[in-house]
Design brief:
0% strand; mainly alpha; Chromate transporter
């Protein structure tokens, strides 16, 4: 039954989220932490950190990691399949109808309406992660310095991850 819940949860996440992995994070957190209790909030943040450092799409990596935690290798396969299945179906349908509707103003308007929702989901995920990642003043300082270095000094994200790890070891 747990594997079916895992499959249906990630199928729902894959079907109702636009904007990629970052937009899926709040939905994954809700399913994994709040609804099913597969993870604690701390475990979710830890998995999210690993998922963001691992090559590949965030949604697929999240499904694979969480699926493995819940149901081993079979859980990984089911969760990963479920999260990509809606996209595969939609892409096949879009490819079939693309030429017929490519100049439709309705399609253009729909995508313009979806953009703010995607931004909202990404901001929601950021706030959720920040609430649990900033555990004290030292963590706020580390996060703030790295935000500044990445945003304004164009520090490479991989270097930022390494610096954050070193700072964490030194400070904590």
């Amino acid at each position: 039954m747990e594997l079916l819940n895992l499959f249906l949860s990630f199928l729902k996440i894959g079907a109702f989220t636009f904007g990629g992995g970052y937009a899926m994070i709040p939905l994954i957190e809700k399913e994994a932490v709040e609804i099913h209790g597969w993870l604690t909030t701390k475990e979710f943040i830890d998995i999210l950190a690993v998922v963001e450092m691992t090559p590949g799409p965030i949604a697929i990596n999240s499904a694979t990691f969480l699926g493995y935690k819940v149901g081993g290798v079979l859980g990984s396969v089911l969760a990963t399949t479920a999260v990509v299945l809606p996209s595969i179906i939609v892409i096949i349908l879009i490819a079939h109808f693309l030429w017929k509707f490519k100049n439709s103003p309705y399609v253009d308007w729909a995508f313009k309406g979806i953009r703010p929702v995607v931004l909202g989901l990404i901001v929601s995920a950021s706030i959720s992660v920040a609430k649990n990642a900033f555990i004290d003043f030292k963590s706020v300082i580390i996060g703030g310095v790295l935000f500044y270095l990445i945003s304004f000094k164009k520090l490479h994200p991989i270097l930022a991850i390494i610096l954050a790890g070193v700072a964490g070891v030194l400070v904590y």
